[in-house]
Amino acid sequence: MKKAKRLYIMMTIGSAVGVIAAFWQTLDKLALLKNPAQPLSCNLSSVFSCSNVLNSHQASVFGFPNSIMCLALFLILLTVAVVGLTGGVISKSMRFATQFLSLFTLGFAFWFLFESTYRIHAICIFCLFCFAGLLLVNASWLRINSADAKWMKRLTARGLDWFIWVLAAVVVSAAIAFKFYV
Hints:
Layout: H1 3-34, H2 50-54, H3 66-85, H4 92-120, H5 125-145, H6 150-157, H7 160-181
Helix pairs in contact: 1-3, 1-5, 3-4, 4-5, 4-7, 5-7
């Protein structure tokens, strides 16, 4: 299997995970809007409490639920990934624009997980799935676009990019674990 095809498969999986998680989170937000006291299936404990997260002001930063924005962004990322996976030609400018979009979304996810952990004091499991999907998408875009940018090529040639993505996942996981379980 060609390297690019494997990367597009990874990107498709990450985007699909994000679409499913954002869609489910949107359904839960709608349920909360209908009945704020309704228990959600994703309320696993006082730490993993989607209700606490979805009822916070941070969950609607732009005036509408963040999950709707994430759903739209993941659908864009999924569409571009499927185009690449099926052999479609994606222009250089489109690839870099999509990478920028995925990096913006990852930055937003870092901010939101920080807010959830240290300000809301609860974690939404769907946000964790979105974050994991974004790591896969961003790792794939960096590898795909590395042929067109020297600094990316140097980063990926040594495998440092995989270290950075794994480190990001470990840092977020450790921050959550230390906040709630240590």
